[in-house]
Amino acid sequence: MILYLHGYDATSPGNHDKIRQLTFIDDDVRLVSYSTQHPRHDMQHLLNEVDKQLKLSDDPNPIMIGVGLGAYWCERIGFLSGLRSVLINPNLWPEQNMLGKIDRPEEYADIASKCVSQFRDKNRGKSLVILSRKDEVFDQKPISDALGEFYEVIWDEEQLHKFPSLGPHLMAIKAFRDLT
C-alpha cells in the first residue's frame, strides 16, 4: 500500500496523474488528503487517517509518498507512524515560505519545536528524497543540505516543482519500498 500526500495545491489534476503512475509499482495507492490551511489540525488529522488506513490494510510493507507540502508531512507522519517515506521536492520551511497562503504558518515552527528531538537522526535511512534541479519555486540545494546527511537523495534533471512525471524514479521508489 502506498499512502499519497498531495502538496499545497490539493485539487491539482497532477495528483491524480501521480497516483496513476504509482499504481505501476503497487495497485493499492490511497490518497490521504488534508486541508493545507491549518497545520496543527492537519497534523492530528493525518496521524489519525494514516492509522486508520494502516488498520484497513494487511500490507506488510506500506510506504508514504508526499510532494511539496505533502512531503513535509510525509517525513514527520511517516516517522511517527513507523513508515518509510519518499519525499519529492519537500517544502521544509512552510513557516517561512507560505506566509499569506495559509492560516497560522507559525504553527509549523511550533510543530517543529515540539517534534521528537533529532527526529531525522532517529529516522536515518527511512526516507528517500527526490529533488528537481529545475524547481522553479524553491532552491533545492538547502533542502539537499538539510536532508542529505540522513537520507539518500536522488536528483532529477528534468522535472519542475510539481514533479508531473514520476516514471524515471518508479523503480527506485519500488526498491526503497521493498527494503526490509
UniProtKB/TrEMBL annotation:
Keyword Zinc-finger among record annotations: no
Keyword Hydrolase: yes
Pfam families attached to this UniProt entry: UPF0227
InterPro entries from the UniProt entry: AB_hydrolase_fold, UPF0227, UPF0227/Esterase_YqiA
Alphabetic keyword roster: Hydrolase
PANTHER family xrefs: ESTERASE YQIA-RELATED, UPF0227 PROTEIN YCFP
Family: Belongs to the UPF0227 family.
Name of this protein: UPF0227 protein ACFOE0_10235
UniProt gene name: ycfP
